[in-house]
């Protein structure tokens, strides 16, 4: 029994060997054909047919365009928002109760228009009193000046008497007592003159103080009418009727939107290309396009973003542009020659450089690095190419520099 098992295993092994390694011979034997010796093809030794030559000369097909450089304006793209030219919170400068009806937000106000009117209270009486004191002070000034003139006359008389007493004393006709009295009178006259002059100065000071008091009260009365500093739109309601305002209390907020500012931020690498007065165009989120000029360029960078503030001033006569709208700003920075190409024509070489593939007059592919000037809806403006170049726009990803291709031009 053991011998039979071994024999069966050998037969199965032989069959599997023939089935796997000698399958062709086994099938030929089964069909009644003799096994022919296998011939190994040698591609190197086999002669090439005309069809093989045609396959070897087959080229890749690409589509190219004739591109000619054009003079285009170089520009910087900034993103930002609109800002009001001026925005002021109009504050009260004196205290008082509001006695005027409020103006509602959105109303257009002229420069000098009254926004809030306050109750004058007793200010008119205080003004009358201050004016009376001014009149009194002015009346005392001539009196003080007259006293000064009288004191100067007495001083002149005392000088004459003192000189006469001294001469008489030298000749022996005046006693020492008389000379001493004349000298004392002279000193008293001098003191009287100084006192009179001080009185004149005091009277003049009283007049000026009275004038200042009148001016202060008149100024306080003028501040009872809180007026718009410039024309614009009310962003908030003015103070409600009957509310008590203190100095520094808000009466209302005014925006000036004509002209309006477009504010963007230029990166460090491009801020040198921006200049005051440069032409600029902008597109709002609504699709509206406006033009203006650069009115401000910051000399100090934002400490967080390291960007520089750029402001463009544009007219806004219809007030269609609002404060805080998103905007894309293009600032002109000179002109340059560039090619307008489809964005799909851009590719990368093995080194990772951005560029395009082109064909020369021998239909040989080449690679040229480019720099993007700006992006538009019609394509990208690129620099770094000759004035005339045949750019591959289809199939550039399937060819490399140095190969010959079949070119079809658009």
Could you characterize the architecture of this molecule?
The chain is an alpha+beta fold and 410 residues long. It has 4 domains: 60-72 and 337-409, Beta Barrel (conserved putative lor/sdh protein from methanococcus maripaludis s2 fold); 90-117 and 226-250, no CATH class; 123-222, Helix Hairpins, CATH 1.10.287.620; 253-335, Elongation Factor Tu (Ef-tu), domain 3. It is 32% helix and 34% strand. It has helices at 2-21, 23-31, 50-56, 123-171, 176-222; strands at residues 60-68, 70-91, 96-97, 108-109, 114-117, 225-227, 232-234, 244-245, 250-267, 279-284, 289-297, 307-314, 326-341, 347-348, 354-359, 365-369, 371-376, 379-383, 388-394, 405-409. Strands 1, 14, 15, 16, 19 and 20 form a 6-stranded mixed beta sheet that branches. A 6-stranded antiparallel beta barrel has the order 2-9-12-11-10-13. A two-stranded antiparallel ribbon has the order 3-8. A hairpin with a 4-residue loop joins strand 10 and strand 11 (289-297). The longest helix has 49 residues, at 123-171.
Secondary structure elements and their pairing?
Elements (H helix, E strand, L loop, with lengths): L1 H20 L1 H9 L18 H7 L3 E9 L1 E22 L4 E2 L10 E2 L4 E4 L5 H49 L4 H47 L2 E3 L4 E3 L9 E2 L4 E18 L11 E6 L4 E9 L9 E8 L11 E16 L5 E2 L5 E6 L5 E5 L1 E6 L2 E5 L4 E7 L10 E5 L1
Helix pairs in contact: 1-2, 4-5
CATH superfamily of the largest domain: Helix Hairpins
> Strand content of the residues, in percent?
25-35%
How many domains? 4
The number of distinct helices, counting runs of at least 4 residues, comes to 5
Helices and strands, in order, run as HHHEEEEEHHEEEEEEEEEEEEEEE
Fraction of residues in helix? 25-40%
Helices and strands: which structural class?
alpha+beta
